[in-house]
Amino acid sequence: MSPAQESIKDADFILPPDVDAKSFVAAMDEMRKVVGSENLEIITAAKMMPDSDGHYFNLPREHDLFYCLEKDTFLASAVIVPGSVEDVSAIVKLANKYLVPLWPISRGRNLGYGGAAPRLRGSVVLDMGGRMNKVLNIDDEHATALLEPGVSYFSLYGYLQNNGHKHLWIDSPDLGGGSVVGNALDRGAGYTPYGEHFSMHCGMEVVLPNGEIIRTGMGSLPENNTWQLFQYGYGPYPDGIFSQSNFGIVTKLGIWLMPDPGNAPTIRNTLIDAAVYAQKAEYSLSKEVLTETEVDEIAKKIGVGRWNIYGALYGPEPMRKLQWEVIRSTLMTVPGASFQFAADVEKEPKAKVLHMREETLKGIPNTYELGWLDWTCKNGSLLGFSPISPVTGADASRQYEMVKRRFHEFGFDYIGTFVVGWRELHHIVCLTFDKTDPDSRRRAHRCIELLIDDAAKLGYGEYRTHTAFMDQIASVYNWNNNSTLRFNETLKDALDPNGILAPGKSGIWPKRLRNRGFEIQRSSPTSDGASSKP
Ligand code: FAD
Ligand code: EUG
Which cofactor names does the annotation list (predicted)? Predict the structure, then answer.
């Protein structure tokens, strides 16, 4: 053993389970040869504690920007930035050799759901977007795109604007810095008719956990020209198992662009709009959860209702006029309802939320909504709680009451929006907290933990979640004695026998790591008894 090797100590690294410092260093040495030393960064405890945590445009990749447990709970051992599909495949093979888990991200801006950080501490973050960030193809005639993981909404929009494709629109979520591929893979949502992002994808290229590369749909037929035109191809349709999963690393994704759009409204509460403009302290001296009367006053002050529908009509003017007549005459029967058009509202001295939403509804990416994160403190953090509901007033009200009760109990103002989908509502609850205050973190975490069980008891489940709750949510999707989780585990063990790809994602643990204490249990039993222990 050389002196250099002897001096390698476990404590110097953020080691994954079953890997000692020596073999971790050997793995990194081999992986460095694949990507080049400038594209591999080892995270050390010292490196982890800079004064600044980073921010939206300077995102930490080794930990969650909005950590709700400790800053180093979901901590990566290294960050690797591959430059090609071949790099990815080579890294995956080495990960198998050394049992080093990989956590792929595209842009890593999964804020509210764990950011860029891995579920299993010591995993290596595979930054798929850092170098693989090209728009590979735009098909004007069919309105499709083929993208690498690093293409953000901003960059896709810019590309279309600057390369003669202005007639093609995109659907952006509220923040434009995310990845078109990453958001679709986590089944994120936007606000135009193409807002259901995963269903608008068409064709994938995937590196499997053994390093093999496949193309889905028509992509498995060599020389085909329909990869981005027909979603299914031939035989079983596997694309779904690569979303919110740990079954493969997506290296290319096809996506449908919008030649001629329709309408997808959101229904937002007063405070989310108020918070876009200013912090709570500017509206109220109260340190408590705001009362109904106080929220009424804020609504009056900023000129909105308690619930506000933001939507757009698309298409030729005569059709829009006709559609508007139908909508107007229906919605105006709601007592107290009123409406405004962005064009009729003064933009000076300050743009209104209406103008901001107008951009989003036109597919112009932006970051206005970062504003509401600071509702109760500067550099505020978000925990997303996102249960699915039928599109009925009764369900929306029941969910609103359910959340308000817990938010009141834990001292949070309700901030939320209902995003209308094809056949359901995504109820997006935005719990803003102060990550620098351990008590705020604890309350935030416990509040959502209880709400997951509250929701399950009423028959509601979340469409997506923060890493801290992945096991809990898997445990409430438990029909027929957890048969879904067992199905996922069967797939996991077949595809990833060494358990190297994103262990724990969506509550799916590989055999090697299952039941060894890495699952996160509820911090204590839920107060009125959890409906659904596994
Ligand atoms: P990434 O972080 O790159 O990916 C997300 C996850 O997908 C990863 O953790 C990983 O599990 C998986 N993944 C990514 N790439 C790959 C790959 N190549 N192979 C395999 N798996 C992969 N979200 C919405 O959907 N709609 C909104 O309107 C919205 N508004 C928001 C507003 C605010 C103020 C905030 C703070 C957040 C909001 N979010 C919203 C949540 C989040 O910011 C976005 O969903 C964001 O797009 C996710 O980050 P990303 O696109 O960089 O994805
Ligand atoms: C939003 C936020 C989300 C999401 C979908 C939409 C929009 C908030 C925090 O996660 O999943 C206004």
Answer: FAD
